[in-house]
Specification:
- The chain is 32% helix and 29% strand.
- By secondary structure, the protein is α+β, with helices and mostly antiparallel strands.
- Strands 1-2-3-4-7-8-6-5 form an eight-stranded mixed barrel.
- Strand 5 and strand 6 (150-163) form a beta hairpin.
Length: 203
Amino acid sequence: MRKIMGLFFILIGIAIILYPLYENMQYDREQQQLLDSFAQLGNTEQLEQASMEAEQAEADFEQANGDKSDQLKGARGLISIDKIDLDMLIFDGTSTETLSKGIGMVEPQKEFGVNNIGLAGHRAITHGKQFNRLDELTVNDEIQVTTSDGTLKFAVVDTFVVHQSEVSVLNDQDEPLLTLVTCTPIGSRNPPHRLIVQAALVP
């Protein structure tokens, strides 16, 4: 019995020592995923072609099946910004496929109206599509997000530019936020900077 208890305490000690290492590894992994998401926004190569292919695939699917079930797979909601005539679906993740058809939710595990939600979109296609006109937003402009739980209203509180490595802009704050992210300047190939528009939840 004494040997078993001794082994038990040894295992507990090892777990206590290793847990901080595991936490650091997990943190590094999550940070790398965020960095990859930010970097993906600057990858404009083949983006227009991917978008055209996605639109054609959607048209073909609708013609053959009469619905949009596959195209809506992974959809989390709809973002609407009247000032820049934007209405786009929000999808989980920031893969090339996702960003070719809509806006990507950088951290899908977060909750609208609770966390700081990062939404990423490209600026490299047609004028007025995706986040091309994001730079026109100013303080107090309204953003709406509609999900299965209802519609939330946000008001822009800040706009600024950061290096693509500054993923700390997605950290949770004292209040629920939307953080819209896109590459800048528009039209540049693989630009290192990101335009950030942050909006706070309107009670």
